[in-house]
Amino acid sequence: xNEKLIDILEMVQRTAVQVGDTASDVAxxxxxxxxxxxxxxxxxxxxxxxxxxxxxxxxxxxxxLYATHTGTPTDSEILQAKLxxxxxxxxxxxxxxxxxxxxxxxxxxxxxxxxxxxxxxFCRECGGKL
Length: 130
Fold this sequence. Notes:
The chain has a domain at 35-106. The radius of gyration is 28 Å and the shape is rod-shaped. By secondary structure, the chain is mainly alpha-helical. The chain has 2 helices and no strands.
């Protein structure tokens, strides 16, 4: 075969390999981002549910206090238990919100925000150390 033709075919082959590698990187990034979004969405749904529980418990505490005001005292142990329940719910919400922050930070470059792969020591986009 003609040397020029061989050079052209080799160049086409290198380009195809580069395109394949880039497509693989993009697919990996999209997959990771989708996984991250799904995980964060599940956490957000749980937070919404917990906030609804807090609102219900707060309403119950308000009813207990009002009952005490109108002459039907609420047992202080029951009230204390309800307040502790609210504290627990709020602590769980805070933990989930912190987990969301970690999820978002764990898979992106701190320098440029690009999606990074597990095990990468440097960002594939900007070269920043991870």
